């Protein structure tokens, strides 16, 4: 009883899962859209009608028409219609002739029907057949029927064939898709006809076929196409639509999907405490959201009121200035009016002047008329050059509020910075990790940034992934010091401003060098033919300028012309441990050798300017990638990688090491493209040298080396060429010539 009660409770709680997103009522003959959402068949027809599609709302179930709807149009021939044979259908489809349901003959551009799915808010393509090409969700129909029975929705089921008032239905017929009372069932299933063989069922409001039928061929589906993610029948398999697709039996798809669903459901049911905890957390978040939202409203209202108060204060100040200017002008104009009124006949100054002219006593007249004459002269001049004492215009009091109106119009909430974009061209790892990024064009500015990084080649610890952080980084670049060698780091960045932290950038993975980085400079005092070697001022780049011997060699190639090898060494020597350095070789270089060698052997071999054309020159005096002697067991004193014209020459032993093989095994010799930077890793104790692609750290060549004495970096040039040492990421290091206890004397 408790189990039944629990089942009824769960059925009642899932009602929202059984509502059609269009009519918000329980599903009635639901159809499965290509986006996997469901919709009632009647609702789908109505939606297509509103979209202007007419004649594409066919019944996907394709069962016989119910006698309750069209009893006069039934024909026994409908049930006896046969489908074409599969082999004939296959020949027609492959030959390109014939049509299929929903396709008009001669239609070059069939109409593709789009259905606006109300669940995912997007347009779903239904194909040319519209609703007729969709499957009915019979499982959902059964769930809806069980739900109706559990909650007693709908009451008694009435007979669909009775004359009003209908009686209560006692039987149902799946073939006729109708409910009957006893009398109507006998009437529509007379003895001696094919309908008499229909098996009665319990009355129901939803009639379903016995099995899921293919909407294209009206046959039971037997397989599942994993490529199209669609159920297919036997005839669908011979269509060109599914040629080359991965098709499995329905039983296999059923078992696999059922196992996945069961496993997921078991996990959810086994973590009910976690679900309840997350629900409590979400409810707490809802409460905080309500409180924070109210606080945000109050803050915005307060700020807007503050803006209003500032505007009101400024308005009063501006109006006061206009009022003062207006009063000043009115006073000046009033005084000017009074002066002009005194010039009228018989009033003011004119009347006084007329009375003074009546004076006959000459000394008295002169005394009074002197001052009067000056006043009359000024009045006359003002009369002749009349101009108002003040302007009536207040144009200088107009306000330009365009900028302020724009600011007020654009007044909006602060936005957090968008996710930064890491510049992969400028971000790299050497002695330190240099990380460079930028914000998207329309992103709000960031006050500072937070960098997070971690190693990916360490065993995972239980719990959440732990990141190392650097807070409040100014600018758009940063240095991460002392990274572990031979590791892979993942880094990400996010910005911060007054609004808070933004989203993280995409993760970028960087490989660190396999050994500690060796810092050195090029020593121009060592080597030969210094007049042809141009070393930069910072002693980190060298260029070989081809001289007269190379021109003569090109002109008289068969006359035994002497051609010299130009050599430059590093100003450090290694006697222990592992060291790594990188350099870039100009792709236009004619022939360059990059590597290491014993300091004593380098001085002996190259101090005398060897001749590469003369037969006395031995190209195998050292170990290089272009010429190897596999029979010599002793380690060579040199190890060089040969680069020429943008290619790297690898010998027979290096081909397999670089992953390059031919049809019959490793190639005798081969070339690979020159990477942007080359890396050299020296293991002094093991007596091994590895040449790497310094960008991807892919191995190019590994060879032995005689480490019985100090080992120096060396660069050889034949013809024109250039080499640039990798600059240290951090500050320029001091020039150190001592490594492992060995010091080179300057």
UniProtKB/TrEMBL annotation:
| Binding partners and assembly | Interacts with TUBB3 and TUBA4A.
Q: Where is the composition biased (Basic and acidic residues)?
A: 617-626
Single GO molecular function:
zinc ion binding
Which intervals hold domain Fibronectin type-III? 416-515
Q: Which InterPro entries match?
A: B30.2/SPRY (IPR001870), B30.2/SPRY_sf (IPR043136), ConA-like_dom_sf (IPR013320), COS_domain (IPR017903), E3_ligase_FN3/SPRY (IPR050617), FN3_dom (IPR003961), FN3_sf (IPR036116), Ig-like_fold (IPR013783)
For the COS domain, which residue ranges apply?
357-414
Name the chain's protein: Tripartite motif-containing protein 46
Keywords of the record? Cell projection, Coiled coil, Cytoplasm, Cytoskeleton, Metal-binding, Phosphoprotein, Repeat, Zinc, Zinc-finger
The entry's family comment says: Belongs to the TRIM/RBCC family.
Output compositional bias ranges, type Low complexity. 60-76
Localization of this protein: Cell projection, Axon; Cytoplasm, Cytoskeleton
Principal location class = other
Pfam families recorded: COS, zf-B_box, zf-RING_UBOX
Q: Which organism is it from?
A: Delphinapterus leucas (Beluga whale)
Lineage per the UniProt record:
Eukaryota, Metazoa, Chordata, Craniata, Vertebrata
Q: Which residues form the B box-type domain?
A: 209-250
């Amino acid at each position: 009883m408790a189990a039944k009660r629990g089942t009824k409770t769960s059925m009642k709680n899932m009602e929202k899962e059984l509502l059609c997103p269009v009519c918000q009522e329980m599903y009635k003959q639901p159809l499965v859209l290509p986006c996997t959402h469901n919709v009632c068949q009647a609702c789908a027809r109505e939606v297509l009608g509103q979209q202007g599609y007419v004649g594409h709302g066919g019944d996907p179930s394709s069962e016989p028409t119910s006698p309750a709807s069209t009893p006069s149009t039934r024909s026994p021939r409908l049930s006896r219609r046969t489908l074409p044979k599969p082999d004939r259908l296959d020949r027609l489809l492959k030959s390109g002739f014939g049509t299929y349901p929903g396709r008009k003959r001669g239609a070059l551009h069939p109409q593709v029907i789009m259905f606006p799915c109300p669940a995912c808010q997007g347009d779903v393509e239904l194909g040319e057949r519209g609703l007729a090409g969709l499957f009915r969700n019979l499982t959902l129909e059964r769930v809806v029927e069980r739900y109706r029975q559990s909650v007693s929705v709908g009451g008694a089921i009435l007979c669909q064939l009775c004359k009003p008032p209908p009686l209560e239905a006692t039987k149902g017929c799946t073939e006729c898709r109708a409910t009957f009372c006893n009398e109507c069932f006998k009437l529509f299933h007379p003895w001696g006809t094919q309908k008499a063989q229909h098996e009665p069922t319990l009355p129901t409001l939803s009639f379903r076929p016995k099995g899921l039928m293919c909407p294209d061929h009206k046959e039971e589906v037997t397989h599942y196409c994993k490529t199209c993610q669609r159920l297919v029948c036997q005839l669908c398999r011979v269509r060109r639509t599914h040629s080359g697709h991965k098709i499995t039996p329905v039983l296999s798809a059923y078992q696999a999907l059922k196992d996945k669903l069961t496993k997921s459901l078991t996990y959810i049911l086994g973590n009910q405490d976690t679900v309840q905890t997350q629900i409590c957390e979400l409810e707490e978040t809802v409460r905080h959201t309500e409180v924070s939202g109210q606080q945000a409203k109050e803050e915005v209202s307060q700020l807007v009121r503050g803006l209003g108060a500032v505007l009101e204060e400024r308005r009063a100040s501006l109006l006061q200035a206009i009022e003062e200017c207006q009063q000043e002008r009115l006073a000046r104009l009033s005084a000017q009016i009074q002066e002009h009124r005194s010039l009228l006949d018989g009033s003011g100054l004119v009347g006084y002047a007329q009375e003074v002219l009546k004076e006959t006593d000459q000394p008295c007249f002169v005394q009074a008329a002197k001052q009067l004459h000056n006043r009359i002269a000024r009045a006359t001049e003002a009369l002749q050059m009349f101009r108002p004492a003040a302007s009536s215009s207040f144009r200088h009091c107009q306000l330009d509020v365009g900028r302020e109106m724009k600011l007020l119009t654009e007044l909006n909430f602060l936005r957090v910075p968008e996710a930064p974009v890491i510049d992969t061209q400028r971000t790299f790892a050497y002695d330190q990790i240099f990380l460079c990024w930028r914000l998207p064009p329309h992103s709000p500015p960031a006050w500072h940034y937070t960098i997070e990084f971690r190693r990916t080649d360490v065993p995972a610890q239980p719990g959440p992934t732990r990141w190392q952080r650097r807070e409040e980084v100014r600018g758009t670049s940063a240095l991460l010091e002392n990274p572990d060698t031979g590791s892979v780091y993942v880094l990400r960045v996010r910005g911060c401003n007054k609004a808070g932290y933004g989203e993280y950038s995409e993760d970028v993975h960087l490989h660190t060098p396999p050994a500690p980085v060796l810092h050195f400079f090029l020593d121009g005092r060592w080597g030969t033919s210094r007049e042809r070697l141009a070393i930069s001022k910072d002693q980190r780049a060298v260029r070989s300028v081809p001289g007269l011997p190379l021109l003569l060699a090109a002109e008289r190639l068969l006359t035994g012309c002497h051609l010299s090898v130009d050599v430059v060494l590093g100003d450090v020597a290694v006697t222990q441990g592992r060291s790594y350095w990188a350099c870039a070789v100009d792709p236009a270089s004619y022939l360059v050798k990059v590597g290491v060698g014993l300091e004593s052997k380098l001085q002996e071999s190259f101090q005398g300017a060897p001749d590469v054309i003369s037969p006395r020159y031995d190209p195998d005096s050292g170990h290089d990638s272009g010429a190897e002697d596999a029979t010599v067991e002793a380690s060579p004193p040199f190890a060089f990688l040969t680069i020429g014209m943008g290619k790297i020459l690898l010998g027979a032993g290096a081909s397999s090491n670089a992953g390059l093989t031919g049809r019959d095994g490793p190639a005798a010799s081969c070339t690979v493209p020159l990477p942007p930077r080359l890396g050299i890793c020296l293991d002094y104790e093991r007596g091994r040298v590895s040449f790497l692609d310094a960008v991807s750290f892919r191995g190019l060549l590994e060879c032995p080396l005689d480490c019985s004495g100090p080992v120096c970096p060396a660069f050889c040039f034949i013809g024109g060429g250039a080499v640039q040492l990798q600059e240290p990421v951090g500050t320029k290091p001091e020039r150190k010539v001592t490594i492992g206890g060995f010091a080179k004397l300057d």
